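User: Okay, second chain of the day. Same drill as before: sequence in, structure tokens out.
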Amino acid sequence: MNSIINSTYFRRAGTFCAACALTVTAFCGGQTPAFAGEKHNIIANKIMQLQQSSQRWIEIDLSRQRLVAWEGNRSVYAVVISSGKPSTPTRTGTCAVQTKHRVARMTGDDYDVPDVPYTMYY
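Assistant: Same drill. Structure tokens below.
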């Protein structure tokens, strides 16, 4: 049985994010409704632009804990995720991937996780 990590899709992951935009579609708590609405419009406009292009991009839904990889308007992969914890929340908005690693060690004050596959920092 092949691991999902060894799938053809992930073998191509090295080039997956050449023009990748990371779109986080949930809002964190504590925002005022006006700001949340404005931020929602910015994200919605960016998603529409990406769907009308042929770019590869990633959408992360924090409320559903789900990542969807897209090529233009076609979803090509979806997976359940584990985003940041309350003390270190995942930022929301749109941003580009800055670095990609086939394997990385993730450390913090109270965790140390070696060999995290296909890590992308934004």
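The longest strand covers residues 111-121.

User: Thanks, on to the next one.
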